[in-house]
Design goal:
The structure holds two protein chains of two kinds. By secondary structure, chain A is α+β, with helices and mostly antiparallel strands. Chain A has six domains: 2-76, Ubiquitin-like (UB roll), CATH 3.10.20; 84-181, [2Fe-2S]-binding domain (DNA polymerase, domain 1, Orthogonal Bundle); 186-267 and 359-435, Alpha-Beta Complex (Aldehyde Oxidoreductase, domain 3); 303-353 and 449-513, Aldehyde Oxidoreductase, domain 4, CATH 3.30.365.10; 550-591 and 747-891, Aldehyde oxidase/xanthine dehydrogenase, molybdopterin binding domain (Aldehyde Oxidoreductase, domain 4, 2-Layer Sandwich), CATH 3.30.365.10; 594-727, Aldehyde oxidase/xanthine dehydrogenase, molybdopterin binding domain (Aldehyde Oxidoreductase, domain 4). Helices cover 29% and strands 23% of the residues of chain A. Chain A contains 25 helices and 36 strands. Chain A has a seven-stranded mixed beta sheet, with helices on both faces. Chain A has a six-stranded mixed beta sheet with strand order 12-13-23-22-21-14, sandwiched between helices. In chain A, strands 2-1-5-3-4 form a five-stranded mixed beta sheet, sandwiched between helices. In chain A, strand 3 (48-51) and strand 4 form a beta hairpin. By secondary structure, chain B is α+β, with helices and mostly antiparallel strands. Chain B has a domain at 213-314: CO dehydrogenase flavoprotein, C-terminal domain (Enolase-like, domain 1, 2-Layer Sandwich), CATH 3.30.390.50. Helices cover 32% and strands 20% of the residues of chain B. In chain B, the strands form three sheets. Chain B has a five-stranded antiparallel beta sheet with strand order 4-5-8-6-7. A four-stranded antiparallel beta sheet of chain B has the order 9-10-11-12. The termini of chain B are far apart. Classes of the chains: A alpha+beta, B alpha+beta. The interface between A and B is large, with 61 and 58 residues.
Chain lengths: 895, 316
Amino acid sequence: MTTHTHINGSPVTLDHDPTDAAVEVIRDNAGLTGTKLVCGAGVCGACTVLVDGKPAASCCMPACSLEGKQVQTIEQFGRSNLHPVQKAFLVHDGLQCGFCTPGFIVEAIYFYDQWREQNGTAAPSRETIASAMAGHLCRCGAYEGIYSAIQAACSGDFDGVAIDDLEFARHEGIAKVTGEAKYTFDVTYDGMLVAKFLSSPHAHAKVISIDTSAAEKFHGVEAVVDVLEDPHRVVRYAGQPILAVAAIDEATASQALAAIEVEYKVLPFVIDPVTAHQSDAPVVYPESKKLTPNASEGPIPPGFWKGNIRTPLTNKFLSSKKGKARKALAAARSGEDGLHLIEHTFSTPAQTHTSLEPHVCVANWDGRKLTVHSSTQSVHLLGKEIAKHFKIPRRDVTVHAEFIGGAFGSKQGLILEIKTAVALALKTERPVKLAFTRDEEMVLGGFRPTSEIEMALVVDDDANQRGITATAWGCCGTAVQSQNAPWIRLLYNGPKDLKDFDVLANWGTARPFRGPCGPSAFWALEQSVDQAAVELKMDPITLRRKWDPNSVRGNLYDWVESIDTWKQRPETGSQSGRFRTGVGVAIGNWFNAFWNGAQVKLDLTTDGLVASCGVQDMGQGSRSVIGKAIADELGISFHSIDVQIGNSDFVPGPISSGSRTTASIYPTSIEAASMMREKIVSAAKAKLGLRNPQWTEGKLSYNGGTMDLAELATKLSPLSVTSKKRGSNGLWDVMGKLPSGDLGMNFTLSTTGSICLIKLSVDTLLGKIHPEKVWMGMAVGKITNPILARSQTYGGIIQSLGITLSEERKWCPTTGTLLSFGMEDYRIPGIGDVPEMEVHFDESGFEKTMKGGACGMAELSNVPVSAAVGNAVYHATGWRPKVLPLTPERVIGNV
Amino acid sequence: MHIQAKSIEEAVRAHSTEGEFRAGGTDVQERIRAGNLSLPIIDIQSIAVLDEIEFHESGTTIGALTTLESIGNHDQLQRDYPAFTLPTRTLATPQIRNFATLGGSLCQRTRCWYYRHPELGCPKKGNSDTCLARDGNHQRGVCFDFGPCVAPHPSSVGCALLTYDAQVEVTGRGKISIGDLYGDGSDPTREHTLEKGQMITHVHLPKAIENEKAAYYRMMSRKWAEWPAVEVVTRLMLDGNVISDAKLSLGAVANIPFRLTEVEELLIGNPANDDTFQSAAQLSVARANPLPQTGHKLKMVVACVLHTLQQAVATT
């Protein structure tokens, strides 16, 4: 059918199917890819456009209802000059990965117009903004910046402010607030094929036969490939892909999938990890245990198996003074005088990454060169991996990942969508796009493992810690390598008996997620410590100082003790009435990682300085780290540097996992800048014959004058420098000494830590927990870019509040199907769920131990939050929560 | 497989044996994506004069194509029918409310996982004779088990209109009560009693009552934008401190929204105080018969009813 409409002021005639939604014609017919399609169910707001001036969820709006309407997309705003709302988002950093940003901005512009008309330049309250923005979700957790941005824009802070006068921290910010940023999801090629998976409806089944003959005869079906790598031809979870079809369009691919016949032998399956423990439970891998995918970033250690339970051999190295810890536990259990036993089982659910940009890959093989666009956390390494896997010379493979719409650990390496898209592109010799649907994203995209931790803590009357014992069960679905127990070692001295076990179930595979198993480990440990303080009638921070005399974390304790909310908190359990205030504290710690092979290249061209690195940005701000390090080192403007990343042909950059990105590219950027400075000075002498040239205050001064970078560029370009590899940090960087040398690791944990203080209210009638304010103290060494560091910390807090209060996966026990397969049933925090947040950085103690003095912070901002909430709930009510998430159904009746 | 209806007659004729009406499309588009729609699509959005709000002597008439946003933000509706506009402003998201229609919100399809999931069976999709949620996962299901389907009815608007004894004008049936629109929940294939060829054209609200005290609570795990675990719409009329009339309806706990008539009877004639409210709240689950996985909802219902009673009297 045909629809006549106006988009961004121009008349447009759209030919489309009656079933099409507005988002499809806006993106595909009109080519306006600033409007994103994410949830497809009107939940997340990434597809928001204005229709006759009103915000619409264009994924849930029939395309034909645009007839005769005026449509405005993000591309309408900021064509000639940025809208005040866009400027405010830049300056207040109301964005990270940027995938939700166009939707937020379109809605915020509508709100701004309404607000200004009715209220002038009064600032709207957080509540008002939250209700207006209730139809938008941001997984990075940029909400704090969004609140500030909307308040500032409405207050008139950006009226008439020129772009050139804006100071903002996110180097690529303008591309993100205008919808110009092209993500892999937005990439198209002429003649591009669309690939789709055929997936198993069974949670466990042997594939007996597959008949694709009918499907392959369909007009427009170009290739079918088998993607089931299991040598036993067994699918082990519902939704596991078996085949992929590439066709000229989505409808043809869908028709082809429907025509494929698969014969299965259905096998028994297990969904509930508790059932999976039992000796008569169906076994997930009955044929061989060698097939299990790895849910962690480290190697899989050897292990013993019994049914679905795996005992890693590393358990042998987890404990210290194991006998003492066991003896203390036995004594406390037998009721020995003077001992206190805190013994509980704590559990946490799986947490799905829920990146707004799904896993997606576009591959193009022109017969000689392979170009791959991938939403990946490891652009440089991926180039190598693809070349090796497909036996193509490395120089003929280029991977692009200029913009990535969230990843959080789930998009590392040569994973299914990349392998499949490349295989189809090679087979068809045409460009192929494979994007997970949202349903697939929820099943295949990865998740943080579930945990169940049986923890016992024994203390004596003198507040000495006599031992910690913990038996941790983690479920990574069909993968292995949940690791809860190691993190229990990261804070307190004393005897420990720690054991980790994997328990497998017929789900998809877990993937690393921002401090894998950290939140669960600290959920157990830090609530146990809090309970010990209760039993001992001691101040919880005093007790922690006693057990953790570290000076860096001592600074964090000092900081919390200076906060009035902490000082003035009521006695635990002293409140009555319906609404009770809870104040809780918890600490966390994490190791630091680096990519010792990282380099940065800097070119002086006629257009100015161009920095490049094969790193990527998922929202944490890689361009900004590079740009700011160079700008500060040379004393020049941050925005004058062109920073190019997200290309595997650039000099090697780090993989973005384990919080190693900033720590790897910051010192190398400084080094590149310093090399460029020397090169300019010597070239000025040699080529221009300047006398006594010196670089001062962003300029070259010499006897008789000065020359700025622009002038130097015209006279000296091209000049090029490449930093040395980052290299290892020193003696303790054991991994950095290994032959490959790229991965660096620091397990000396005396320089890092994070502390979370939370104030919340508990509605004891309705079972609702309202976080009111969070204070997060971070000891993560040098803060290279305070605004972005703050934003990332907010994100860590918010993601943790999600798993603490609302995020939960639901399964069908009879079919093994994931039921919470969309974003309305998997409940990530919205803007209204976000409390005020205050972040404090303690930068001490780092300079001597780490190159550049910077380390990662993604995990540290995340790991103590759940436990702080648990401790605050106990403080308010006297009820110790043990099972997350604390949805009303779990709280009501307990408080 | 698509009809662009320009009149009610044309729409109804097109729908006589099969197909689905599409107005705002907020539910239909989501189901198209999941391959869960019976063709043809009959677009009714451009039918004229079905989006008007008319106040008259005997009450108020609202066209079925009126958007939820224009109802929720309507000053006079907010004054006259607060228990109707409160949920209308709270449900879904602003973008959805801007285009979702009154008729669509009454007739939207269930949110049941088994209905929505492309691979699973459900009598409402016609690919299963029995409800798989009953023996499967019904943690977000009903705790008042009225019939074969164990998924809560999705219409918050329907729940609210029940407290006004609103009437719905349906082609071929004339004016029927909201209660009759939803029936008794015994039909496993539908969320309402509309047959093919029947379309809601208007909703009629009775004359407004001055000074009614209204409250709405939607229990969610987050602050906004979630399908409720329980929802309660409460209207109280006070004579001094005595409750002269009460209308309460409960949503998200049964396969139809329904009135808590026993609670209303208890409230009427009693003082509006905590004792009365506590007894009323306890009575609200008298008819409940929870499923194995929905027992937790009983506490929620009691708490939500108590909360709305307290909220209602606290309004000025």
